[in-house]
Design a protein that fits this description.
118 residues, 4-stranded mixed beta sheet, Endonuclease, Chain A, alpha+beta
Length: 118
């Protein structure tokens, strides 16, 4: 996987990726640093928050045909220690507030678990 390929993906984001990036860039969401189009193993994750070990994948219609591929991809990314959360592009278009409300809960729950583990 080349850096040129990653840069091309960043430059040619989907509409859903543009919307999500606009909401999380520059620590706008819960002061978390997100990066986009991040190589992890043999895959490129859409959005990654290292601090929370969280990957956000935005799936379009093409993913309806690739469920087995997506499941394998998720397993591999989880083996790297990440939680993988998937949203359909339509989720962002039709209810971006619900998406970020759910993410707030997920991040809050993970932070609470880490405090209990200490």
């Amino acid at each position: 996987m080349s850096i040129k390929h990653v840069r091309a993906l960043r430059k040619n984001q989907t509409r859903a990726e543009d919307i999500f990036w606009h909401e999380v860039r520059n620590r706008l969401f819960l002061n978390l640093k997100f990066r986009r189009q991040v190589p992890i193993g043999k895959y490129i994750a859409d959005f990654v928050c290292e601090q929370e070990k969280l990957i956000i994948e935005l799936d379009g219609d093409q993913h309806e045909q690739s469920e087995a591929y997506d499941e394998e991809r998720t397993r591999v990314l989880e083996n790297y220690g990440y939680r993988v959360v998937r949203y359909w592009n339509e989720d962002l278009y039709e209810g971006i507030d619900r998406v970020f409300e759910e993410l707030s809960y997920l991040v809050g729950d993970a932070r609470a678990e880490r405090k209990c583990d200490k």
